[in-house]
Amino acid sequence: LGLAVGGHGSLLPDSLARQVKVKWQKPDLGEIHRKLRPQGPTRPLSNPGTEPDPDLPGGGLHLCPACARYFIDSANLKTHFGSKEHKKRLKQLSIEPYSQEEAERAAGMGSYVSPKRLPVPTEVSTDVPEMD
Questions:
Q1: Domains of the chain (ranges plus CATH)?
Q2: Torsion-angle region of residue 6: left (phi > 0), alpha (psi -120 to 50) or beta?
């Protein structure tokens, strides 16, 4: 008998496997809900007047706010809008996020109230600003 594949080293907080997992971790649905809410941060998601960010794919100009992903060009972004992954994410975002009040009701401190349906922005501008 020996260690299983991966061993116990992958459980350490500074292991390479954990570092890669954290690096590629997608934002939680609650974080995306906060960014999509009108009373959320006033930071614009994609402003055509801003200059491109060289560290992001496509200069950060082609963002799908529901999936929190950047794309290389508008053609790839439009293809993404028709994908199964994007449609699943829109369905997940259409339900009100889990809250402390809902947890208390589930624990028996109130009666069940079904989660509300929320409007999800499906239209995203795919226009690219002209570069000088």
A1: 25-37+52-119 (3.30.160)
A2: left
d(CA 31, CA 68): 10
* Distance separating alpha carbons of residues 48 and 63, to the nearest angstrom: 12
Q: Give, for all 132 residues of the chain, the pLDDT tens digit.
A: 455 566 676 667 788 888 898 888 889 988 998 888 776 555 555 555 567 888 999 898 999 999 999 999 999 999 999 999 999 999 999 998 888 998 999 898 888 888 888 887 766 655 655 544
Contact 124, 63 (CB under 8 A): yes
Neighbour count for residue 15 (Cβ, 10 Å): 15
